Amino acid sequence: MRQGRGAVRDGGGMDGRSGERSGRTQAERLAGEIAEAIVTGALAPGSRLDEQALAERYGVSRTPVREALRQLGTSGLVEVRPRRGAVVAQVTAEQLAELFVAMAEIEATCARLAAQSMSPLERRRLDALHDSMADLARAGDPAAYARANTAFHGAVYAGAHNTVLADFALSLRRRLQPYREAQFRVAGRLARSHDEHGVVAAAILAGRAEEAHAAMLRHVTLVESSVEGLLARATGEAGGA
Amino acid sequence: MRQGRGAVRDGGGMDGRSGERSGRTQAERLAGEIAEAIVTGALAPGSRLDEQALAERYGVSRTPVREALRQLGTSGLVEVRPRRGAVVAQVTAEQLAELFVAMAEIEATCARLAAQSMSPLERRRLDALHDSMADLARAGDPAAYARANTAFHGAVYAGAHNTVLADFALSLRRRLQPYREAQFRVAGRLARSHDEHGVVAAAILAGRAEEAHAAMLRHVTLVESSVEGLLARATGEAGGA
DNA sequence: GCGCGAAAAATTGCATGCAACACCTGGAGT
DNA sequence: ACTCCAGGTGTTGCATGCAATTTTTCGCGC
User: Fold this and answer.
1) CA-to-CA dists, residue B51 to A55, B54, B143, angstroms
2) Gyration radius of chain B's alpha carbons
3) Distance (Å, rounded) from C-alpha A177 to C-alpha A150?
4) What is the distance, to the nearest Å, from the Cα of residue B94 to the centroid of all Cα atoms in its chain?
5) Which of A57, A81, B49, B170 could make an S-S bridge to B86, C-beta 3.0–4.6 Å?
6) Residue B159 pLDDT exceeds 70
7) Nearest-CA distance A140 → chain B (Å)
8) Smallest Cα–Cα separation from A208: which of A132, A101, A105, A123?
9) What does residue B61 show for φ and ψ, rounded to 5 degrees?
10) A204: distance to nearest CA of chain B, Å?
């Protein structure tokens, strides 16, 4: 099936749907799509990522698929075994614990730096963001709260004024997203999460660096134990198949 | 120039860095080689990475080169612009500062965790390693000290018992290597570095977590200011030779 | 002389084909 | 029955070719 570059290409459109620039390469687009599929759980951990199957699925050849897989391999979302194909990265319980510890530490570090170096404007925005989340927590909408939660933590990363740490925190957050999301559906977790955010935000706004560090570390560690509780109850189902 | 798969392949050097199999693909080998060339300064920051040139240089086709470049792009060593080729990542002074801050924070975190969770054996080994460095510092051999220094910091990473943080610390360390190495040649820096290590090691061995954190943060921050002093004197030449 | 636009050259992006390795299946030997 | 090995099959790895897009060069008008 020669697809030929001259043939009509789907996305060839001028302004590109969903705001995506056509300036991105297929490999990048694929990396994003596959990452999305993994993070949302559409691709279960451990499932094989057949190059040809993915190529047909996304209407491209194997070459950009391979490039995307290698890219995702570096970021840790998929595991590429030398001549044995790629699989969605399987996180063992120990690795999950390490990921959570790492995220807690990085986020806490970001919080400390943010307390030291956020601008007045950034502090006001963080405050406003936290306030707006109170309603969501009361309303009890896990999905909406999860989105706002991402924004809140993102604001803290940004406030650290360190793109290296912020990028790392974001990548950890993405890798843990499937596990974190579930815990928002646990009764009462929303309100407690919001309370913990309040402690973090207050410390950052007041510039109390060590306190911000401790509060964020505690917050993320609590998320971890919440997730571990979930996993303990659903042992064995995580890996799928 | 059809090279055929049957041609003699070097078979890999078995560098044994982290237990890699000999079955590495060309793309992986290339990623390693190119990364090495960048880290050692053979490829200056900002230089274009022409796919065909690299392919000829390493005796392969453009396909594995492209895969390697994309891999390096994700790890941050290389910047890949969508249709405009790849260049060795240019670190501006600000980014360099951010990298150092990030490394300082991560290393400090590792030190704190190490103080909390190193095994008695690991503690003894760290102590022995530090002792052996005293001679090197006195002898004033920058290269030998640099190697031992890497081992010392590596022991701290390992002692944190968190591969996620350890891997990140290692990748930051690699990215900063060209800049850090120079400062060991500054007169007196070796002895001072060893003294700082002593404070870090003592805190870790005694299990004083917060002290270990503070000592490591201070140590790496001092390295940073030392490097900045060097850069200030050699403005603009940063990439070169 | 200088900016501007179009053709030419260079370079990237992707599709395809072929060879080597990994896995699976079936049979023989112990 | 179990292990071991040979053959077949599927998948990955890489080389190559072509189309599209940059970048460069050159000619033209101002």
Assistant:
1) 24, 5, 33
2) 20
3) 10
4) 19
5) B49
6) yes
7) 33
8) A123
9) -95, 180
10) 18
Q: What is the pLDDT of residues B15-27, one digit of tens each?
A: 333 333 446 899 9
For the segment A164-187, what is each residue's pLDDT rounded down to a tens digit?
Answer: 999 999 999 988 887 887 787 787
Q: Pick the residue with more confidence: A93 or B219?
A: B219
Residue B49's pLDDT band, with cuts at 50, 70 and 90, is: very high
- In chain B, whose CA is at the least distance from the CA of A24? B82
* pLDDT of residue A5 exceeding 50: no
Strand order in the sheet with A48-49: A48-49, A85-88, A78-81
Q: Which value, to the nearest 10 degrees, does the dihedral of the CA atoms of residues A213, A218, A221, A227 take?
A: -130
Distance, in Å, from the CA atom of B176 to the CA atom of B104, rounded to the nearest integer, reads 12
Q: Do A105 and B113 touch (CB under 8 A)?
A: yes
CA B20 to C1' D9, whole Å = 28
Share of chain B above pLDDT 70, in %: 86
The β-bridge partners of A48 are A87
Higher pLDDT, B228 or A42: A42
Q: How big is the A-B interface in CB pairs under 8 Å?
A: 75
Burial of A58 (0-12, 13-18, 19+ CB in 10 A): middle
pLDDT in tens, A95-114: 889 999 999 999 999 999 99
Q: How far apart are the first and last CA of chain A?
A: 32
Cα B97–B155–A99 angle (5° rounding)? 70
Average pLDDT over residues A36-50: 92
What is the rounded distance in angstroms from the CA atom of residue B39 to the CA atom of residue A168? 21
* Domains of chain A as residue ranges with CATH: 10-88 (1.10.10.10), 93-233 (1.20.120.530)
